[in-house]
Amino acid sequence: MLLGRRKFLTRAGAFGLSLGGTVPTLAQPTNPDYTIKIAPMSVELAPGKVIQTYGYNGTVPGPVLRLQENRQVSIRIVNDTDIDDIIHWHGLFVPPEVDGAMEEGSPMAPAHGGSKLYTFTPKPTGTRWYHSHDVAGKDLTRSMYAGLYRFLIVEPTNDPGRYDEEVLLAAHHWAGQWVSMQDIRKGPPPNNGLEVMYSAASFNDKMLGHGEPVRVREGERVLFRLLNASPTENIRLALSGHRFTVLALDGNPVPTSATVNVLALAPAERADVIVEMNRPGIWILGATNDDDRKMGLGVVVEYANQSGEPQWSEPPMATWEYTAFGKQGTLPLPDGVFPLKFEKIPGGRGGYNRWTINGKSWPDTNPLFTVERGKRYRLVMNNNSGDTHPVHLHRHPFRGHQSRRQTDIRADEGHAQHGSVHDRRYRLRCR
């Protein structure tokens, strides 16, 4: 979780990755650079709190992959579960046959010991991640409800490394159950369908108060790479007594760095932030939502030579606004405009809700729209539901634009949230 800068640079230079061609291809099984084994396992989040799940290489989260930009890599997936599965390399610009989405042509690793070898050239640099891209459906033990996720960091050729320590924290909610909200509290409409509720949460493999703390020293600049690997939950995070200087969102440097008290991350979103360690003590980095924090979503941050109980204090009220990290400017006119209306079709008590884009659900939405290489398109996303939706487009970045204020925010493959803002527009450049 915590790695000294010098050790990190030494390890980064020691990878045995082979140099390859310029075009990534799907190779036949040979000798891989890495092997990722998918198998059942248990994870002890806290004493007496053991989750039966699935993981990579016997750990939750799986092993961190640190790849060098533009150096070809081969990764073998071995599937020791009872269903076919697949891994998506989230945020990489690679061909669809190796991107890890079966809907787009990537082959799955067959169940009961089957394997597939993926060979590609990782780019762009930044904090990416990898995770199961199988469809969980109604099974809350599979895919992203399980422990099938981890950081994938693409390192640049030359990295100045302006920080002293690096901390990788992946948030996750566990033990999901289908619940009729009408049965537990007043308020939900009577036609609302089943929702997922969780009984535990963690950073990496431990709930708050269990496992090792993040150990720091006064005067250090610590880089936190934060990932929301929750299947469904938006989270807001704070570190008591400290502030976050945001360097990158979804692995991409923000046009304007800004310092905030609270970070807001939708599922799959990442933030690279620097924290100046200038308040000696023992603190909690955790969810601002009390229920999430009580479920375990937090970690202790401990200064050297300090003792006592971890302290939590409510951060100042703040509104999360992506435009704080953008810049003013005018974007070129698009070559086409595609309106996208997101709606929720309630399933009724005991039933399952259904989601639509322009009145259709997958796979009937395919194709959603048609584009031409080299052109720019505006996606006008209107969210007519009561839920916030992060939007993810494989192998493409969004450039955000709001009708009231123009920005230049790049989001890895478009983790653009369109919840309370009903007229947020996004431009997409096809690659």
Write up what this structure looks like.
- It is a single chain.
- The strands form 7 sheets. Strands 1, 10, 13, 15, 17, 18 and 20 form a 7-stranded mixed beta sheet that branches. The protein has a 6-stranded mixed beta sheet with strand order 24-23-25-30-27-28, with no helix packed on it. It has a 5-stranded mixed beta sheet with strand order 14-22-21-16-19.
- It starts with a strand and ends with a strand.
- β27 and β28 form a beta hairpin.
- Mean pLDDT is 86; it is low at 1-29, 403-414 and 416-431.
- It contains 2 helices and 30 strands.
- 37% of the residues are buried.
- The chain has helices at 5-12, 290-295, and strands spanning 2-4, 34-46, 49-56, 65-68, 73-79, 87-90, 114-120, 126-132, 149-155, 165-174, 177-179, 195-197, 200-203, 214-216, 221-228, 235-239, 244-249, 252-260, 263-265, 270-276, 282-287, 298-303, 336-345, 354-357, 376-383, 390-391, 398-402, 410-411, 416-417, 424-429.
- The longest helix is centred in the N-terminal third of the chain and has 8 residues, at 5-12.
- The chain has 431 residues and is mainly β.
